[in-house]
Amino acid sequence: MSCKILLTGNIAKFSNNKFNEMQTIGLIGGITPQSTIMYYQILNDLAEKEFGEFHSCKLIINSVDFAEISKLQKVNRWDELDKIMSDAAQSLERAGANVILICANTMHLTIDAVREAISIPVVHIADATAEEIKKQKLSKVGLLGTKYTMEKDFYKDILKSNGIDVVIPNEKERIVINEVIYNELSKGILKKESKALYLEIINSLILRGAEGIILGCTEIPLLIEQKDVKAPIYDTTTIHALKGYRRALIN
After folding, report:
1. Are residues 35 and 64 in the same domain?
2. From its phi and psi, is residue 5 left (phi > 0), alpha (psi between -120 and 50) or beta?
3. Domain count along the chain
């Protein structure tokens, strides 16, 4: 079980006028803690690169309880998950967030409820990913993620609306991918055997015509890197964090 916390990110001691104009990003995290750590690190690295040494990103984190989230997912109680995520978003808006990122691919199943509950923008991870794929002019990609991300249409529909065909692993492969995510990656456990299985599945998707591979679970980049795969991979964690960061910059 993870603790429900509201954490305000550190603000750089040495500011400049441009940095002071940056908006605050609200993160709905804890889904999983590993994923949230990755978002936090990426966003702070971007701020330091943009504004200089000692600068960190303006962030507010609402970390929900992954045990509760996972339990509700298993019993298909998306109505309750909508409520949890909407409440988290509202707390971030009240705390001063100007834009929100949901730090998990799967939980974008709740994005409509979240958007209805608040008046600030929520950056969709699939929209951001589709933009990157279109830049490379790919027409067919493989999608890895939780069983919800691979099997439900919320993610694939956005890709298809952008002219991108999607191929997913077969049922046996989907079970393997999902079990590794929940039993290993969500806990920060990285196994060579699991990496080998993932790469075997990725290669099968490439043989089925995938020109690129979406790492459609925010923890998968802990296991799979571009150097491991011949086709382009799309690290949705980094892509999403970067899109949110750019959205928070005031021109």
Report:
1. yes
2. beta
3. 2
Q: What is the pTM of this model?
A: 0.88
Exposed / middle / buried, residue 106 (Cβ in 10 Å: 0-12, 13-18, 19+) = buried
- DSSP E strand stretches across the chain: 5-8, 25-29, 59-63, 99-102, 122-123, 140-144, 165-167, 212-215, 233-235
Cα–Cα distances in angstroms (integers) from residue 133 to residues 103, 105, 144, 149, in the given order = 20, 16, 15, 18
Q: Are residues 116 and 151 located together in one domain of the fold? A: no
Q: Residue 242, Cβ neighbours under 10 Å: how many?
A: 16
Cα–Cα–Cα angle for 161, 126, 62, rounded to 5 degrees: 145
Q: What is the per-residue pLDDT across 14-32, written as a single tens digit (0 to 9) for each?
A: 345 565 678 999 999 999 8
- Residues 200-234: pLDDT tens digits? 999 999 999 999 999 999 899 999 999 999 999 99
| Segments forming the whole domain that contains residue 215 | 126-235
Does residue 95 sit in the same domain as residue 160?
A: no
Question: Measuring CA to CA, which residue among 118, 91, 112 is closest to residue 29?
Answer: 91
Same domain for 120 and 17, yes or no, is: yes
Which tokens in the block code for residue 133?
């794929």
CATH number at residue 147: 3.40.50.1860
Evaluate whether 203 touches 179 at the Cβ level (below 8 Å). no
Q: Are residues 98 and 114 in the same domain?
A: yes
Buried b (16+ CB within 10 A) or exposed e, 48-72: eeebeeebbbbbbbbbbebebbeeb
Task: Name, in order, each residue with C-beta under 8 angstroms of 93's C-beta and a sequence gap of 6 or more.
Answer: 26, 100, 118, 119, 120
Residue 39 pLDDT grade (very low, low, confident, very high; cuts 50, 70, 90): very high
